[in-house]
Design a protein that fits this description.
single chain, mainly alpha
């Protein structure tokens, strides 16, 4: 029961965004072929809203690695090993 609720909460926005994209593209295509300018513009706007929602969903799910970059403090790189503070400040290290 709980697993179904969590699945709905996690993948519900994806389903809504996907529906908006498909419906918007279909409306824009019909409007373009029939010559209805208002339907073409509205369908394109709805499709764009769906794509925006999909990208936001991907960011919130942590799919893009840029989310990890935004969490790290500026000037740090997780791939570089830790270096002594003396090399960073320009002072000579005393042994």
């Amino acid at each position: 029961m709980i697993r179904k609720i969590v699945g709905t909460v996690v993948f519900g926005p994806f389903a809504i965004a996907l529906f908006l994209v498909i419906a918007g593209v279909a409306a824009a295509l019909i409007g373009g072929l029939a010559g209805w300018e208002d339907l073409k513009i509205s369908g394109g706007a709805v499709a764009g809203l769906g794509v925006t929602g999909f990208v936001v969903w991907l960011f919130l799910m942590g799919v893009f690695p840029i989310a990890h970059v935004l969490d790290s403090p500026p000037g740090t790189d997780s791939k570089k090993p830790d270096q002594p503070n003396a090399a960073v400040s320009g002072q000579k290290e005393v042994k």
